[in-house]
Specification:
mainly alpha, Growth Hormone, Chain: A, globular, disordered C terminus, MFS family permease, MFS_dom
Length: 468
């Protein structure tokens, strides 16, 4: 049963509030990594685990929390996800141990469960005519939150120390949890035949995802042909095969492999992976390019704060994408915004390959790139939800989010390797040729994502035709 228009407006506002917290938690630490390295007396390579710990926890827990929400009720799992962010922030502001800081960042990763759970709530609770717009807005809020997180952290570091960043995240987490508690009705789950979950499936999923993401995230620092990276990739392959075997034989799988094998779901997951590759690769190369000293003949000598501010057009593009995507989906279905999103992302990165002499070029490309990723990510859940029953909404979108994370880690690693492989003589700064190559690689990722929807033959069910 759906809610009245007034109550559904409050619910959607709560979902947007909750969804914005998670990307802010991911990106807010980027400007403060040097400060954290100094505060905790660790190396630059060690402090990168502040990002990696969050990435690993989010990747592992997102599909698990989505599945548990389908089984036992999404409201309580939403609150658990947000309280993980709160607990992590409390620990981060109070600890003087780097090990405990990593635990705090892992607790922040519990917030990754908000995305699939929010989609499940929207599909189940919002009036059908508002569901498409709601999903589009929640999807695009990820990009908005990512940009705002970097800017907010840069501003806070101008006046206070790194703890101010975690204090802000603590407040945002509490506000989001309160909004969910007040606006989201209690539910008992929708997967009535799902039974329980397999602990072995959860453990093997966690092991192979962690091994894969650590290898990809640390490959540039450890060496891609080194023993540690190759060993982790081997572990990931073996345990993934074991996980597939466990899931295919258990009566109540954590992730239904038959669902993943459906062409619409599989191809949409591929599009999400490629879009994640392009998006995070673009973030890396654009912010790095802005900070290159102008004495090298390119770049803008931007501080971390200014580089973050240069991403604001990206957030503005994401914001505009929410309304545009909902209109396009209602009139033409999800294929148009997904294709258009990839094309816009590719165009923005290709533009920077040839035009990068002015900050205006970066602002323009950022706005177009943000509009493109916003359109793509708004269309993706519509495709996924059209191919799965309501009882699998959260876990299906959670799995999609994990594959997006894998794509993001790969995009960051590949662009990082390209930039590190060609540097200005006597410095660690990448050359202009390296940046141009990185721009083209991210453009290729977006272009590949734009091609995928043409292989999806089934007609997605419009959101207003679904039975909530």
């Amino acid at each position: 049963m759906t809610l009245t228009a007034r109550r559904s407006g409050g619910l959607l506002a709560a979902m947007l509030c909750a969804m914005t917290v998670q990307p802010i938690a991911q990106t807010m630490v980027v400007p403060i990594l040097p400060s954290l390295a100094g505060e905790f007396a660790v190396s630059a390579s060690d402090v990168s685990w502040v990002m990696t710990a969050n990435l690993l926890a989010a990747a592992v827990l997102t599909p698990i929390l989505g599945r548990l929400g389908d089984l036992h009720g999404r409201r309580r799992l939403l609150l658990l996800s947000l309280l993980g962010t709160v607990a992590g922030s409390v620990l981060a502001v109070s600890t003087h141990s780097f090990a405990l800081l990593l635990v705090a960042r892992a607790l922040h990763g519990i917030g990754g469960g908000v995305l699939p759970l929010a989609f499940g709530v929207i599909r189940a609770e919002l009036p059908p005519e508002r569901a498409a717009r709601g999903m589009a807005m929640v999807s695009t809020s990820m990009g908005i939150g990512s940009g705002l997180g970097v800017v907010a952290a840069g501003l806070l570091m101008e006046w206070w120390d790194y703890r101010a960043v975690f204090w802000l995240l603590l407040v945002l987490g509490l506000l989001a949890a309160a909004a969910v508690a007040l606006s989201v009705p209690a539910d008992r789950g929708t997967d009535r035949e799902g039974g329980g979950t397999s602990p072995l499936a959860a453990v093997t999923l966690a092991v192979w995802l962690c091994a894969l993401l650590v290898a990809v995230s640390q490959g540039n620092g450890w060496g891609w042909t080194g023993t540690r990276v190759l060993g982790l990739l081997s572990v990931a392959a073996v345990v993934c095969a074991l996980w597939l075997r466990v899931e295919s034989r258990t009566r109540h799988p954590l992730i239904d492999l038959r669902m993943l094998a459906r062409p619409t779901v599989a191809l949409t997951n591929l599009a999400a992976t490629l879009t994640g590759f392009g998006m995070y690769g673009a973030y890396i190369v654009m912010t790095s390019f802005a900070q290159v000293p102008q004495e090298y003949g390119f770049g803008f000598s931007a501080t971390v704060l200014i580089a973050g501010l240069m991403l604001l057009p990206n957030s503005a593009g994401n914001l505009a994408a929410g309304t545009l995507a909902a209109a396009l989906i209602a009139r033409r279905g999800p294929r148009t915004p997904l294709v258009l999103g990839g094309l816009l992302g590719a165009a923005a990165m290709a533009f920077l390959t040839v035009r990068h002499g002015s900050a205006v070029d970066l602002y323009l490309a950022g706005g177009v790139f943000g509009l493109g990723t916003g359109l793509a990510f708004a269309a993706i859940p519509v495709y996924v939800n059209s191919a799965v029953p309501p009882g699998q909404t959260a876990v299906a979108n959670g799995t999609n989010a994990v594959l997006r994370t894998i794509g993001a880690a790969a995009g960051s690693a590949v662009t990082g390797a390209v930039l590190a492989g060609d540097t200005v003589a006597g410095t660690a700064s990448p050359t202009l040729h390296a940046y141009q190559a990185a721009f083209m690689i991210t453009a290729a990722g977006f272009l590949a994502a734009a091609a995928v929807p043409f292989a999806i033959r089934s007609r997605p069910v419009p959101v207003h035709e679904e039975i909530s």
